[in-house]
Amino acid sequence: MSDTGKTIVNSWNEWDPLRHVIVGRADDCHIPAEEPALDAKVPEDSDMRGQWGRRPQETIDRANELLNNFASQLEKRGIRVDRPTSIDHSVPVETPDFSTESQFGCMPPRDVLLTVGSEMLEATMSYRCRWFEYLNYRPLMQKYFEEDPKFRHESAPKPRLTDADYHPDYLSEKIGVEKRLKWTAEKFFVTTEEEPLFDAADVLRFGRDLVVQHGFTTNLKGIEWLRRHFPDHRVHAVNFPGDPYPIHIDATFTPLRPGLILNNPQRRLPDEQREMFQKNDWQIVDSAQPAHNAPPPLCYSSTWLSMNVLVLDPKTVCVEKSEVYQAEQMDKLGMEVVEVDLRDAYAFGGGLHCCTADVYREGVCEDYFPNR
Fold it and tell me: MF terms per GO, please (predicted)?
């Protein structure tokens, strides 16, 4: 952000000093109706199964209270905070190829918006209910475009999301975790290679390198599209065989500062994919255990939102207030911990990383992996 208060869009990694960020809202959030991408994602024993419709108002109000408090915490630290303008998520999504009864929400901007340098890219989204989610952020994109002459507002090609985009094998309710783990180890996911698909939350930024998870929400064609779209970057596909529901990388692989990454101990990066990090003296450490043994009610996410943290700078990190083991680990790793109460908002789209999207971090594009 400049001295005049005008917008500068610029962010190259996950840890440079954060100066401007978008924090989501829980407004009008819906549990989406059944669709192929969603059915594969919802755990078979989840209380989400068979439920859809607008979330209860008292839970929306509570989540918004926590999100508003988080935004205030960031502002008190001198960080500019913008918020989305919620559209009516009760409106069905209808295209010539599909229709769904409702949409989702606008709590997790990280899922939709990928900031690389002076560009903010709207992801394709691989859930039908999330096809129009970018509209919640369009007023902000227009504002940034008017205020920052270097800002590039980009949007990936909208996918058709026909049935050809999804493997029918995943539509059985009773697949079982053992078979799911076998399939994910074989890189057989619910999404096919019909057309490019990616969610922004599957991408981690390491300066010149982008690390992208191949899983339920991002396919190889989506990764190839990103490779062509960012020709000055090196784009690396990774996967985590221990995850039976591989969606979004930020509760599995969390860079804290140059040279240090937390990795979910249940979903370790395979040995052959560690080489790039090892050659460049990056340390990959197992994350601390979650403080909870189950997610909150009506929540898609796993207990590993404990490691879904927001790094404010290489020495400061926001950790969910109840995640005491994660906070202890951060302290031992030399990080100042900022406690944020957010657990009652998890169900609306995730944790501290999910509910934010970078606009401006101080710093330039660096090569953190010079040894190839």
Answer: glycine amidinotransferase activity
The parent domain of residue 129 ranges over 18-361
Domain membership of residue 238 (yes or no) is yes
The pLDDT value given to residue 1: 39
pLDDT of res. 47: 55
Residue 39 has a pLDDT of: 63
Cα torsion 332, 336, 340, 345 to 10°: value is: -60
197: domain CATH number is 3.75.10.10
211 in a structural domain: yes
Q: Is 29 a catalytic residue?
A: no
CA angle centred on 152, ends 148 and 157, rounded to 5°: 150
Instruction: Identify the CA nearest to 21 among candidates 106, 109, 110, 82.
Output: 82
Question: Residue 1 falls within a domain, yes or no?
Answer: no
Catalytic residue, from 27, 248, 353, 355: name it.
248
CB burial string 43-55: b at 16+ within 10 A, e below: eeeeebeeebeeb
Cβ atoms within 10 Å, residue 216? 25
Most confident of 34-43, 236-245, 305-314: 305-314
- The answer to whether residue 141 scores a pLDDT higher than 50 is yes
CA distance 244 to 240: 9
**Diameter over CA atoms, the chain:** 57
Domain count, the chain: 1
Q: What pLDDT, in 10s, does the model give residues 1-16?
A: 333 468 999 999 999 9
Residue 334 maps to a domain:
yes
pLDDT tens-digit map of 59-98: 999 999 999 999 999 999 999 999 999 999 999 999 999 9
- Write the CB contacts of 296 (distance below 8 Å, at least 6 apart in sequence): 343, 344, 346, 347
Residue 248 is a catalytic residue: yes
Which among 50, 34, 40, 33 has a CA at the least distance from the CA of 167? 40
Catalytic residue chosen out of the listed positions 106, 354, 355, 358: 354
Classified as helix, coil or strand, 21 is: strand
Instruction: Region of 209 please: left (phi>0), alpha (psi -120 to 50) or beta.
Output: beta
Active-site hit among 199, 202, 243, 313: 199
Q: Is the CB of residue 204 less than 8 Å from the CB of residue 276? A: no
The pLDDT tens digits of the residues spanning 291-329 come to: 998 887 777 778 899 999 999 999 999 999 999 999 999
| Stretch 133-162: mean pLDDT | 97
